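Researcher: Re-running this chain for the archive, since the previous output was lost when a drive failed. Same request as before.
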Amino acid sequence: IAKALGYKVLDAPAKEVGWAPVYLKDHTIPGLPEQMTALHWHQQMFEIPKEAKLLFSSDLVKNQGFLLGDNVVGLQFHFEPEEDNLREIAINDSEYAEENNALHQTADEIIKHGVPKENKQIMVTILNFITKKD
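Model: Regenerated structure tokens:
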């Protein structure tokens, strides 16, 4: 989304692969917790569009998510995977997970962690906000 709007996608200061917290930086979307555990699988980051609000940051990468207007959300991480998706991602991309990973998690550890049950509700909250549903 950021690139389509003319902003840069750059190497991040750290490669994040695995489970780690993200922190809420803007309270425009009601009902989001201050801290959430998200699946990270990236070594790049985006510039926040000047018209957007920084929505989420992690300990290692500031630009983790943004809100543009009231109907566009850009996320660097994942709330959407189900257990089967998580297993497929980790197994099929295990080498990537284990090379220079600042979170120091193996594919097996990522799978064993499992998907936090609250992530589905967080995703629903975000989707309801951008689609104007209660």
